[in-house]
Amino acid sequence: MSLKRATGLLAAATLVAAASAAAAPANGRLAYMNGGSVYTINPDGTGAALLHEGVFPSFSPEGTRIAFAGTQFGPGGALPILVADADGSNVRQIGASLSPHLLSWSPDGTRIAFVSGLALGGFSVVVLNADGSGSSTISPDASPDAAASWSPDGTELAFTTTNDTDIAVAKADGSGRRLLIQDGTKDMSPSWSPGGSQIAFFREANGRFVLYAIGANGSGLHQLGQTQANNFAPPAWSPDGSRIAFGGAEAIGYDRYGPYYRENVYTVGADGVGERRLTDSASLAAGFAPLWSPDGRRIAFLSSRTGYSAGSQLFVMNPDGTCETQLTALATPVSQPSWQALATGGQTNPLECAALSIAGSLDVERDHPALDDSRVYIYHGVVANNGNVTSDPLRLVTADESPFSYISANAASGACSLGARVSCTLPALPPGGTIEVEFRFNAFVAGTFEIEPEVEGTGNTPDGDASDNAPFCEISTQQGSTLRAGSDDDLICGTVGADSIFAGGGNDRVFAGAGHNVIHGGPDEDEIQGGGGTDIAYGDSGRDGIHGSSGDDVLIGGSGPDQLWGDIGGDFLKGGPGADRLFGGYGNDVIDSRDGLTEQVYCGEGKDRVEADLRDIVRDCEKVVRRPAVQARAPR
């Protein structure tokens, strides 16, 4: 993170609060799969332990045993199916099958259903006796993507058929197979309600999956959710059957394959009322694959919010979405969580946290309009507690070394002192409370510098998820002015004003803000987000990705193979020289793809007009005018 004197400011702040161990959990441990082995961990994130080599762990209903598939191939390429005591001891093989996965115990703990097979030979639903005394194939036409779901009385199984096309129900011995819904719509991932009268599942509607439910007898089909659902995991009923948790996907933009999404965990009432998003991270993979705790007072889920290099990690939160707390922080992805039920212990108390966050913006005093050493910059920050308990007293400090000369520092509550850095003592924040801070400073030294202000809790109140404690912007313009960045790789944010941004050389990322902006990406490979206003964005040279976001935007790719997304609004897109991909998005767009090369144009929603070469690939567009490519004249 860097400051370019007289051109921009890195306004980044990190909010850190020490976490303390939660009270002893009333639920049992969580099992998960990581790197070909099964691990367990306490619900407060302590006591992680390797259980055994294996995959697809599943705790038995009474919590004393755990089943999983082994990883050592046996005769015919079969993998062993193992059962162990909950602590990993007394491992015994109860069967073997081709690629067994998605294990699911019967409610009485006497049988285990799983999906078995290979892509070339097809997949089946198999039921294996937990004592190893025998198995039976329930259906030879199962999907490998969704687990079978037991009826609460253990007499039937619901499962997804081949190619994720239908939901079938069969007796636990394989007899009485029937399709739950007789139509041509794709249905998948059934989940039986605790009371046994309903089955929730994902149903395709207009090219996307949505949460539905139907009576176990095939009557009363009805839609529950409004948000597009992902199918990484089936819908999860709360133990009392009152709510259903599921992974949802909200379209927030387009790439060359179409829309891209932000994944969150949602819940909705069993009657379809009260859908709400629980996770609140800005990450594209904020939450998915939710799982209720046995007592219904926690929801575990997976999230990649901490970075895609490590992949998904295990989190827990309260059922209202408060206190998102990370449990694992491993170098490789975590998957397939299973929660152990304890026979005794009672219900757990709600997670408690002071979920601290900080947001900041930069302005400049108007009586120093020139970009010179006398300009006074103003940083406005807001510290907030989004948790459910009062925080400890807080201390805010800026970096030890910086090019800034601080003029003043003030906090709406608390006190600040000046020196080589700013140090503010802030009072404890109640839930929903905020404190505003303001720094004024000059920047006298040219160059690139590190600056990382921090806010630290002075006690042990847990913060929950710390990934939202830092604004992500490195360089921010003063409101409504011009920023010229250098030749390195920059992360640039605009303001609510009308900004002019010249990203310069390097592979830059530009987020233009809400004003009417003009952005030049410069050479190299840049990513430009236009923001909420009416923007003009030029990729210039290099392989660029330009998003107009909301507003009526003008997007010019420049030279190089660019990708342009109009997103929301009536946009004008022109790829320029190079083999470009142009996505109109939502709104009435005008797209010019003529440059003599083969362009790919995807218009999207709205009444769109395209001017294209004869060779261009144009899809989903209302009006297309094609003309021969303009050829350069041969010299005489």
Structure description:
With 636 residues, the protein is an all-beta fold. Among the domains are: 355-457, Mu homology domain, subdomain B (Immunoglobulin-like); 477-627, no CATH class. 0% of the residues lie in helices and 42% in strands. It has no helices and 55 strands. A nine-stranded parallel sheet has the order 38-40-42-44-46-48-50-52-54, with no helix packed on it. The chain is globular. The two termini are 55 Å apart.
Summarize the structure.
The chain is an all-beta fold and 636 residues long. The protein contains no helices and 55 strands.
Q: What descriptive keywords fit this protein?
A:
636 residues, Immunoglobulin-like, 0% helix, 42% strand, mainly beta, globular, 9-stranded parallel sheet
Question: Helices, strands, pairings?
Answer:
Elements: E1 14-16, E2 30-34, E3 37-41, E4 49-53, E5 55-59, E6 65-69, E7 79-85, E8 92-97, E9 101-105, E10 111-118, E11 122-129, E12 135-142, E13 149-150, E14 156-160, E15 167-171, E16 178-179, E17 187-192, E18 198-205, E19 208-215, E20 222-223, E21 236-237, E22 243-255, E23 258-269, E24 276-277, E25 288-292, E26 299-303, E27 313-317, E28 325-326, E29 335-339, E30 356-364, E31 377-385, E32 394-397, E33 404-411, E34 415-418, E35 422-426, E36 434-443, E37 454-457, E38 475-476, E39 482-484, E40 491-493, E41 500-502, E42 509-511, E43 518-520, E44 527-529, E45 536-538, E46 545-547, E47 554-556, E48 563-565, E49 572-574, E50 581-583, E51 590-592, E52 600-602, E53 609-613, E54 617-619, E55 623-627
